[in-house]
């Protein structure tokens, strides 16, 4: 089973809109893909969901976080990576992927996508993951 790390933008897209990110997350829920996460990734998700553009309050954020917790395998991240210079917070996804032995990082963020791969881990958009793995 493929092991993936989802960038925050993909996770948020999966919860709020239909499309390829939701299809990926549905595969996680169905047990066809293993989702890897970390405490830093969870904190980043909470921070992003708190943006005013989403209009969410704490009690609305908690079910999203709890859903992710239900399906994710949490990785104790020990690695420290400083590869993405333009947005250093993106390095948390590389760290989790590295220590969790991920096959993919799925992102919509050009800072990550521009890297193409990291330590043998492919960095792709949700649609590209689905195509490469034969889900669509």
* CATH class label: Alpha Beta
CATH architectural group? 3-Layer(aba) Sandwich
Strand content: 15-25%
- Measured on Cα atoms, how large is the radius of gyration? 14 Å
As for the CATH topology, it is Rossmann fold
CATH superfamily: 5'-nuclease
How many domains? The number is 1
Description:
The chain is an alpha/beta fold and 136 residues long. The chain has a single domain (2-132), classed as Rossmann fold (3-Layer(aba) Sandwich). Helices cover 47% and strands 16% of the residues. Strands 3-2-1-4-6-5 form a six-stranded mixed β-sheet, sandwiched between helices. Strand 5 and strand 6 form a beta hairpin. Helix 1 crosses helix 2 (20-29), helix 2 (20-29) packs across helix 7 (126-132) and helix 3 (39-49) runs antiparallel to helix 4. The chain starts with a strand and ends with a helix. The mean pLDDT is 97.
Identify the notable features of this structure and list them briefly.
six-stranded mixed β-sheet; globular; 7 helices; alpha/beta
What is the compact description of this entry?
The chain has 136 residues and is α/β, with parallel strands linked by helices. It has helices at 8-16, 20-29, 39-49, 58-71, 91-99, 110-113, 126-132; strands at 2-6, 33-37, 72-74, 104-106, 117-118, 121-124. The chain has one domain (2-132): Rossmann fold.
């Amino acid at each position: 089973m493929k092991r993936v790390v989802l960038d925050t933008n993909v996770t948020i897209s999966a919860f709020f809109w239909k499309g390829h990110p939701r299809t990926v997350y549905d595969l996680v829920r169905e047990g066809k893909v293993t989702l890897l996460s970390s405490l830093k990734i969870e904190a980043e998700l909470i921070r992003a969901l708190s943006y005013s553009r989403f209009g969410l309050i704490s009690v609305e954020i908690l079910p999203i976080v709890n859903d992710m917790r239900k399906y994710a395998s949490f990785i104790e991240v020990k690695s420290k990576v400083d590869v993405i210079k333009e947005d250093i917070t993106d390095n948390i996804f590389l760290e989790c992927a590295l220590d969790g032995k991920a096959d993919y990082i799925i992102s919509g963020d050009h800072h990550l996508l521009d890297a193409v791969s990291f330590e043998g881990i492919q960095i792709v958009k949700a649609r590209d993951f689905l195509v490469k793995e034969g889900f669509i």
